[in-house]
Every structure is written in structure tokens, then in C-alpha cells.
Specification:
five-stranded mixed beta sheet; 13 strands; Nucleotidyltransferase, domain 5; alpha/beta; 21% strand; 316 residues; single chain
Length: 316
């Protein structure tokens, strides 16, 4: 007989990943589907239920955890997510709760990643830390005294939308100069396309229109000077911002999560150097930069599932 599991779901603008996770963090079943194939949120819920039922997995599920862009923990809704085709306010937790007849928790995807790090990952020894997710955008999950900070409305922790450069790059949120326009996969691509340098002419970047952040990091590792400048520019933007963010919650560590974080230890070292150079003296040499240890698993699914496991532990 299989162990009881939580259904963890990571809803993204492009893909939705889901899987069954037991209390020890083992994923017994997982898959990914295109979010854009489903005209409505109800269609997505129906598909996931049908798939799990076909594999005879419904009986072992004891709860549902969801990580989603603009996810509101308090209301269980996805609200005005710019990268989702479903517009307005989506009662996603309620839809899953009705279909599965199970308790369902939903939060911002970066918050889910923070809980995942605390329950299963590289922050199990920490009660004060911030997870920084470096993907298409930049998200953050703030843990203080072992508790995730949601704020009065469920949207606390939008570090990616703190403006770091006055009248800077336009962000998807409609404002200008947000951190995620500089320190994210999208930001890296914008930088290599927009910034000028004496090294740009000799750069080995040939297909600049289709280049990805992964490509830029690969070029930097092979000695491309312009790509190296872009990585340094990104690390500086992030390091300076983390120095300022430290003043808010005095974390023991920032845990970097996502593709950029997994590009190698050199980036994290550079971020740490810029952070320390710009740190208020009372915080200097007190804050670690860690890299997520969940990269070899589906961290998004684990993080979403850990919402439920963590809640059950609190009430045990």
C-alpha cells in the first residue's frame, strides 16, 4: 500500500507541473502539461482529476497544494496574473477543493518555493531566510521566525517589483525600473541586447534575437568577455538589492532558486561580494548566500505540496 500523498501543483504561464508527494518529499508520480491548452481554469482542474483517476491515484491524496503567479494565500485566488490567459480573479483553490473534495491551499509560487526549502531543502536549519526565485521574473518568499510572511492581503514579498533604477526598464507590471527587469532570465536577455560595451563587437553572440539566459551563462564560461560583463552586471544589480532588503528582515540567508541560481557557484559568489560591498555595517558578514538544493527534484511541485504538509505539522 502506498503512503498517503499531497497533490502539489505548480501553475505557470507556459506549463503546469503536478505530482504526488509524500511527507518525506518523495514524488511518486509527476507530469507536466501546457497551461495554454486549457481555455478555462475549470478545464485544467478537470484534466488533472481525470488523469489522476485514470492512474488510480485519487484515493491516496489527502490534500492539494498549489503554487501560482499572483496567488493569494488568504483567499485561495489567482488575481490578475499577467502571464496567464485566464484574466481577472480565479478562485483556483475553491475549484480544486470542489472537484477533489479535499482541503486545498494556494499561494504565490515563490512562497511555495520558500516553504519547500524550509521543509525539504537547503533552509531546513533556518528560521530567518528569504528565497529568491530567479526565473522569467524574480519572486521572493520571506520567512521570519519560521513563518512565511503574507501581509494583510496575501501579497507580501514582491521583491521583484521593488524599483531599483529610477525610470529604468519597463516591467510587465506597468511600472519602470523593477528589479526583475535586471535580475532574472528575462533581465539577462534584455541586458545583452540593450547594453553597450567595447567587448560587444568581439562577442561570440551570433543569434542575438533568439539568445536565452542559459546561452549567456554558457558564453561567459567559455570566455566571452561581453557575456561575462552581462553576468557581472546582473550579479551587481541583485547583490545591491539584497543588501537593501536585508534591512527589512535581517535574514540569516538568501536562498537562490531557479535556472540562474543553478548556473554555477560563481554567480552566487559574485552576488555575495556585491551584497557585502553595499551592506549596512551592522549586517556585514552576517548573511549567507545559499543555492537551492532542490534542483535535482521538481522543486515547484515539492514546494506546492509542502504547503499542506507544513500546515498539518502546525496543527499536529
Amino acid at each position: 500500500m502506498r503512503k498517503k500523498s499531497v497533490l502539489g501543483i505548480d501553475i505557470g504561464g507556459t506549463n503546469t507541473a503536478y505530482g504526488l508527494c509524500d511527507e518525506e518529499g518523495n514524488i511518486c508520480y509527476e507530469t507536466s502539461i501546457s497551461t495554454r491548452e486549457f481555455p478555462t481554469a475549470e478545464d485544467l482542474v478537470e484534466y488533472i482529476y481525470t488523469d489522476l483517476a485514470a492512474h488510480n491515484l485519487i484515493p491516496e491524496i489527502i490534500g492539494v497544494g498549489i503554487g501560482a503567479p499572483n496567488g493569494n494565500f488568504h483567499s485561495g485566488t489567482i488575481e490578475y496574473a499577467p502571464n496567464l490567459m485566464w484574466k481577472g480573479i480565479i478562485p483556483m483553490a475553491q475549484l480544486f477543493e470542489r472537484k477533489f473534495d479535499l482541503p486545498t491551499l494556494l499561494t504565490n509560487d515563490a512562497n511555495a518555493a520558500a516553504i519547500g526549502e524550509m521543509v525539504y531543502g537547503n533552509a531546513r536549519d533556518l528560521t530567518h531566510f528569504v528565497t529568491i526565485t530567479l526565473g522569467t521574473g524574480l519572486g521572493s518568499g520571506i520567512i521570519i521566525d519560521g513563518k512565511l510572511i503574507y501581509g494583510h492581503d496575501g501579497f507580501a514579498g514582491e521583491y521583484g517589483h521593488i524599483r531599483v533604477i529610477a525610470d529604468g526598464r519597463k516591467c510587465g507590471c506597468g511600472r519602470y525600473g523593477c528589479l526583475e527587469t535586471y535580475a532574472s532570465a528575462t533581465g539577462v536577455v534584455r541586458s545583452i541586447k540593450e547594453l553597450e560595451s567595447p567587448n560587444k563587437a568581439s562577442s561570440r553572440v551570433y543569434d542575438i534575437k533568439n539568445i536565452t539566459a542559459h546561452d549567456v551563462f554558457d558564453l561567459a564560461r567559455t570566455g566571452d568577455l561581453f557575456a561575462q560583463e552581462i553576468i557581472d552586471f546582473t550579479a551587481e544589480a541583485l547583490g545591491k538589492a539584497l543588501a537593501d532588503f536585508t534591512c527589512f528582515s535581517s535574514p540569516k540567508a538568501f536562498v537562490l532558486f531557479g535556472g540562474i541560481a543553478q548556473s554555477g557557484p560563481e554567480f552566487a559568489v559574485s552576488v555575495k561580494e556585491y551584497m557585502e560591498k553595499n551592506m549596512l555595517i551592522i549586517f556585514q558578514n552576517k548573511v549567507e548566500i545559499r543555492i537551492s538544493s532542490l534542483h535535482d527534484k521538481n522543486a515547484a511541485v515539492l514546494g506546492a505540496a509542502s504547503l499542506v504538509w507544513n500546515e498539518r505539522k502546525k496543527h499536529a
